[in-house]
Amino acid sequence: MSTFLFVTPTWDGQAWAQHMQGAMPQRTMRVWPDMGDVADVHYVAAWLPPANVLRSLPNLKVIFSLGAGVDAILSDPTLPENTPIVRVNDPDLTMRMSEHIVLQVLMHHRQQRRLDANQKAKIWDNFPQHAASALRVGVMGLGVLGADAARKLSVMGFPTAGWSRTRKTVEGVHCYAGATELDAFLARTDVLISLLPATLETDGILNRGLFQKLARSGPFGAPILINAGRGRQQVEADIVAALDAGELYAASLDVFQKEPLAPSSPFWSHGKVILTPHSAADSDTATICAYVAQQIERFERGGDLQNVVDRRQGY
Ligand code: NDP
Ligand code: OXD
After folding, report:
1. What is the rounded distance in angstroms from the CA atom of residue 58 to the CA atom of residue 115?
2. What is the per-residue pLDDT across 3-33, written as a single tens digit (0 to 9) for each?
3. Where are any strands of DSSP class E within the chain?
4. Against a cut of 0.90, is the pTM above it?
5. Which of 208, 278, 298, 311 is catalytic?
6. How far is 116 from 126, CA to CA, in rounded Å?
7. Which pLDDT belongs to residue 75?
8. Which residue puts its alpha carbon closest to atom 4 of ligand 2?
9. Any ligand 1 atom below 6 A from CB of 73
């Protein structure tokens, strides 16, 4: 008997288990805290697993993340050391993220909020619009999501650069790499987009000191921030201060240090902020379950797991 266990205390594990059962009819599905005989649990889907739960599974073979990010799994201080962690890399999710990023860039580029306000006030103001070629976008993180978004922005005519830990080659995108090239990347960037994972190295990277290194010669006179990576990357007080001081022109934020965002957060009502509730790229349940089932099938036939997390790097 081989059990697939959901350890997802903040998600509706029962609903996911029903979908997963459809993808793997022969396997027993369980949802923590109902683990059955722990010796039968070979596979787990986890998100914020409580300490010692995964560690208590003696025959655990693979831990699946139901998202692309794995910070919510790596945060378990008792995580079993040698069990592979597989994350989501799925064209549907990538497409959704690129939609979100392109939408946010265009919202700022075409000044859609200003047009909305004018419509509401019945003001016919045919103000000048800039060409895409005037707005330099820069994507932090050129992984599965960042590379796709950067490619699509480049095709739309935005001068596009990207920055990653190791050097990449992305068609139409000027690729910067490593800490030594960060300042040059920032200095040519009018719209900064973060699609970085949450790691110790990226924690707090979106801070006022970094904003001050961005270009100020773009069409809006101050840079724009778009973060759809993780909230841990942003120093939220710095974003508010930079917006209020005019050091940032505007921001689109999908992720926050603490989610759900507290009603007291200044972001809700800030005139320069477009806020979305961590909905940039939802995981489609059926697609993810089929992806997990295929991985297990291949693994049990002796094949390799795909999209295994590098625990040393933290993503
Ligand atoms: P990948 O692992 O494919 O890519 C991560 C990229 O970040 C890589 O290019 C990597 O560089 C780069 N990177 C990591 N650390 C550093 C660093 N210290 N300095 C410079 N570059 C760094 O991840 P994905 O593209 O699939 O996903 C990115 C993140 O997006 C996820 O981790 C998650 O947090 C977030 N996400 C948010 C969603 C939302 O709805 N808001 C939905 C899905 C994901 P290198 O390639 O050189 O290693
Ligand atoms: C993910 C997310 O990591 O939805 O997939 O944030």
Report:
1. 59
2. 999 999 999 999 999 999 999 999 999 999 9
3. 3-7, 28-31, 41-46, 62-65, 85-86, 137-140, 160-164, 173-177, 191-194, 224-227, 250-253, 273-275
4. yes
5. 278
6. 13
7. 95
8. 67
9. no
